[in-house]
Structure formats: structure tokens, C-alpha cells
Amino acid sequence: MSRLLALLAVLITLALPAQAQDSATLVSDRLEIAGDTRLIADGNVEVFFRGNRLKASRIVFDQATDRLEITGPIVLTEPTGQTLILAGQADLAADLSEGILTSARLVLNQQLQLAANRMMRVAGRYTALQTVTASSCKVCPGDPTPLWEIRARRVVHDEVARQIYFDRAQFRLAGIPVLYIPRLRMPDPTLKRATGFLMPSIRTTSDLGTGIKVPYFIVLGTSADVTLTPYLTARDSKTLGLRYRQAFATGLLTLEGSVSRDGLSPGETRGYLRARGDFTLPERFQLSFDGKTVTDPAYLLDYGIDNTDRLDSRIEVKRTRRNEHISARIISFQTLRDDEDNTTIPTVIADLTFHRRFSLGPLGGEGGLRLQTHNHYRSSASPVDGNGDGIADGRDVGRISARIDWRRSLFLPMGIEGTVLGELTADAYTIADDATFGGSTSRTHGSAGVELRWPWVKTEASGAVQVIEPVVQLLFSSSVAESLPNEDSVLIEFDEGNLFSLDRFPGSDAVERGPRANVGVSWTRHDPRGWSMGVTVGRVFREADLGQFGPGSGLAGTTSDWLAATTFTLSDTLALTGRMVLDDGLSVTKAEARLALSGPKTALSTSMIWAVADPLENRPDPTQEITFDARRKVTPNWTAKASGRYDFAGDQGTLAGLGLEFLNECVRFDVSLSRRFTSSTSVTPTTDFGLSLDLVGFGSGVTGGPARTCRQ
Fold it and tell me: Please, which residues bridge with residue 67 across strands?
């Protein structure tokens, strides 16, 4: 009788909702007590215990042996939901930590499946499987062969270390054995970081031949890791790449680089190094740095690392708040261009900026104060222009600037908005190693004016809103020009963003002078169906031509060229921007267009630029170029890619690339082919072929795509 009471106590514990961590809840269609020690649950049985969930058709609990006999189909879900066990029958301990399952499958992170004849649960940590097939590919009833699979005599899954150990593993593609590995360890899909080899990739170039990269990832702790990537090619090129990452409480540090010995530069050691970091400092300041260096101009292109022709290294501390911006930075340049010398370009630049916006109380309106220092240094000490670029080879410049500005808007009759605006700047220069501009000098400059805007708004019955806004801006500035070198205001853009600016020069070395009128009109339409469009047309009229601007800017002469700009957006799928600068004869001075298309099957990004030659902007030849980058989903699994750049002025392509990607639920395969056509004394035209393969489900970080469709 006492044993029956004990069994009833177990039944009550199982049947009631869990009140403590070690309590269990059992739900079934029928409960039966057999003898003194056996509890039988039959029909749609579910057990909830320590976060585990067990579903079966029948469970027999034997109190004498403290074990469960389970009849399937069995579904056992771990507390995290990332591990799922399916089986036909099982004999398990009452706490589900140990036992044997037959005709079993282990599913990890809803990706990787391991099917086995026999599965053993050991110590609540290990799952051991016998005669195993592992794959993340979908298997169809009529075609049981997955795209890839790993077959092994024995597999052990360590749930704590989140590692999978294979014994006598055989890798198969479409059922064909391609690789045999006696021992194999791989991370399970839930593990983000684990020491071991990463998926290799193949790269073939016309300069280096065919090579293979085999990355090896090393975990150095919870906050640091390093990746070593040996790269060997058929043409005697040996490279070791390195990436080191460390996370801190306030930021992240990344170091990466590589060292190479190859036949392109016999007897020389080549390489590059890059250090990046972002950190949060006290008082909401941010520290960022990005340093780069390379041994020779061709290295980055030869090894497919980057196609930049100038290395920009910088360290900066800044803080931006609602009405304030503070920035201190140091920038270093290393040129990789054949026609430039590092000794004659500003290799070190230092800037300090304080910018504050504020209201002016009784005066009304909004004011601003900007204080700035700038210094740049050349390693050359020559005071003359020896390379013919119009700049003394050793010119070093120091500048201190202060600027105040003010604007106040008023509403006039008929809905006209009138604005009074002005600014005043003062600069002090110290120039060294320059026979023409050497010494100390200063400059003051002011601009003032009025602006009138008259917006006309119309709301249509459909809900669309149209706005037409003519704008006239009358400005006065001094026409006197100081003798100062211009290095930071050479490249000038004339667009809708600065059509109504007091100064269209981008830097501080040059200022826009003379009385002038900025005139323009804009039209915008916002349609409730999800599209919008805008058009701006404008022009600048001057009292006199002071020779400030070159022919390529569109701003030269007493009357500027016409500016015409348009934008068109369609929800989140299409964005088009374009602008043209045209003279009175409608000849194009400068034109550019950008198109971005993002659809369910097609993505396209393209840009075009067309500009006349302008020696003042260091462009002795016209610029006529188009670039594009396109992707097209041919099928749910196949994606075609193409990219290119064509130089119309030189009548030749500069870059071209093709690619094809396959992605399904278990594999990503990517093949690419690119060609660089440009050449110089340091680089030659090169063809690059790349091949990579990632298996979904083994910690690759790749998200699976559409699953295979089974034929009926």
C-alpha cells in the first residue's frame, strides 16, 4: 500500500503545473498505474521538465529503475530551442540526461541534421551517435541524396563546448565521396567563435597564378581573437595574412595586414598594415582612428585588397551635440600614384574645429561661431615648384580662422519669407618654404544679403501635394583679393545644395567675392501613391567677372551656367538623381546622374559623370565615365552579378566584373571573374578569378536561402 501511495505522489507531481525548477508537468490522454511502481501515460503525451519538452505517443515510468520507456514518434526540445532530437523509441533516465534512442535525428539551430541508427545521451551534456549522416540540405522522398553530406562511423556533440566531433568522416557531394578525414572537429551552428580552420577559398590572377587561402581562427578569450590566413600560389607567391580583434568596455580595436614574398618583386618582402579603432571617451567624446601603410604602390592591387590610389590615415576626437561640434584630427597621406611624390604632397595635416550655434536674444534670428586651426606639412624643403603642379614643393601652411554668421527670417505679406543674413571671417596665415607666398599674412572677409522665398502650395483631390518656390538672393561681398595660396578649395561643385550659399568654395583658402544675385526656382511633388519628384533650376548673376572660377565649375564669368537638377524616388525601390550645368548654347559643362534600383529580383546602382577639362582643378583632360554594379536573381537560388567602369574620354574600359552565386538552405557557392584594364609603371592589367564555398550549418555565419523544392 505504501508503494502505491508513493507512486500516486509521483503522479500528482507530474500532473500538477511546475512550481519549482526540478518539478515536472505531464499531460496525456490517459494515465494508468500498473502494479506498485509503474506509471503509464498513453496518447498525445507531453512532459515539461527543467526547460525540456518531450512529446511522444506513450511513456512508461518505472519508479524502481527511475527510467522512462518512450514509444515514438519522439520529439525532444532543449531549453534553448536550438537543439531538437527526433527518434522512434527511447530508454532514458527520468531526468532525460542519459539513455539510448533508436532511429534518431539530432537537429541543431534548425539547420544541421544528424541522422543515426542509434543515439546515446550521456551525463546531460553529450549526445553520441552511431553510423551517422550529417547535412543541412533538404532531402526529398524521391531523391534521398542531399547536395552535400558528411558520413561518419561515430559523432559526438558536446552541448557545453558546442562542438561536433566526427570519427572516420567522409565528405560527399551529390553522393560522390570527395574527401576522407579520420578525425574532424567542427563547431555546431549555435557557436559564433571557435578555434579552428575556416572555409578555404581559391583565387587565380594573371600575375600570381592559382592560389588557395586557408584561414585559421584562434580564440584568445571572450574579447579577443586572431585569424591567420596563409595564401600560396602556383607562381611561387607566399603570403601570411593576419587579423587581430579585441573588444573593450568602451570600443573595438582591429589590426590587419599581410606579408608576402613573390616573383613580382624578387628578393623583396612586401606587405601592408592597417589599424582601426572606435572608442567612447568621457563627456560623450568619440575617439576613432584608421591607420594604413603599404610597402609599394602595387601591393594592394596585386593581392586584391583595395584599389585606392592614396592611403588616408587619421586619428580624430570629436563630439557632436544639438548646437555644438568639436573636432580635433591628424591626417597623414601616402600616395600610390605614379605622378605624385610623397615629399611634395601634404603628408601630415592637423585640424582643430569648434562650431557653435546659438540664438541672439533681442536681435532675433540664429547665429553661429566657428573657430578653426589648420596646419599641413610637406617633407620637402624646396621653396620652388620643381614638379610643375603650380605649388611650391615644400610649402608648409598654418592657419587660424574665426567666423561668425547670422540670419533672421520674417514673414511678409502674400506668404513671402524674407531673410536677412551675413557672415564675417578672419584668417591668419603662416607660410614657409614657398618663394612666392612665404611669410605671415592675414585676411578679413564679409558677406551680407537678403533672401526672398515665395512658396506656392497646391493640394490635389488625390492627396498629392505640389510646391513651387521661386527664390532670389542678393548678396554683397568685397571684391578685393588677398594674395594667398589655394590648396583646400580647388574642386568646386555647383549644385542645388549650394545654389543659395554665401560661399561656394568648399574650404577656407578661397572666398567668393563681389556683388551677385543667386536666382532659382524649385518644384516638388509628393504623391500618396508612394513617389515624389523634384526639379530645381537656377543661375548666378555677378556685377563683374573677378576670375575666381575655372571653366569646369560652371561659375565663371559675369553670368554662371544654368544649373538644372532633378530627383525622383519611388517608395524604397527606385532613387534617381541628376544634375546638369549648361551654358547659354546648351553645351554641357558638367553632368552627373545616379540611379539606385532595389527590387525583389533586381538591384542596380549606377553613376555617370561628364565634365570638361579644367587646369585650375588639376584636370587637364575631360572626365567622361560611367560605373555600374548590378545583381539579378535568375532563380530563387541563382543570382548573377555584373560590375564595370568605362572611360569614354579614353575610349576604354577600366574595370569589368562578372559573378554567379548559388544559395540554398545548405550551401553558398560564389564564383567571380574580374579584369582591371588600367596600367602604369607600377601595375599592369590583371585578370582575377575567385571561388568560394560555404556550408550552412557549421558556424560559417552564412544564412541559408530558399530550400530545395521536391518534385511530386
Answer: 62, 93
What are the grid coordinates assigned to 452, written together? 526672398
For residue 15, give the DSSP letter: H
Give the mean pLDDT of 431-437.
93
Distance CA 169, CA 179 (A): 8
Task: Specify whether the CB–CB gap between 665 and 708 falls below 8 A.
Answer: yes
Q: What's the mean pLDDT when you consider all of the chain?
A: 89
CA–CA gap between residue 95 and residue 100 (Å, rounded): 13
CA distance 92 to 200: 41
Inter-residue contact 270 to 296 (CB < 8 Å): yes
Handedness of CA 361, 363, 367, 370 (dihedral sign): negative
Q: Does the structure show a pLDDT above 60 at 9?
A: no
In whole angstroms, what is the distance from residue 146 CA to residue 139 CA? 6
Closest CA to 56 of 39, 37, 76: 76
| Residue linked to cell 555644438 | 324
Flag whether the pTM goes above 0.90: no
Residue spans of the domains in the chain: they are 2-196, 476-496+503-539+546-633, 657-712
pLDDT in tens, 586-633: 999 999 999 999 999 999 999 999 999 988 888 888 999 999 999 999
- What are 400's three cell numbers? 587660424
CATH of domain 2-196: 2.60.450.10
| CA dist., res. 654 & res. 635, Å (int) | 30
In terms of C-beta density within 10 A (0-12 exposed, 13-18 middle, 19 or more buried), how is residue 587 classed? exposed
Q: How many Cα neighbours within 13 Å face the side chain of 552?
A: 20
Kindly state the cell numbers that stand for 448.
Answer: 551680407
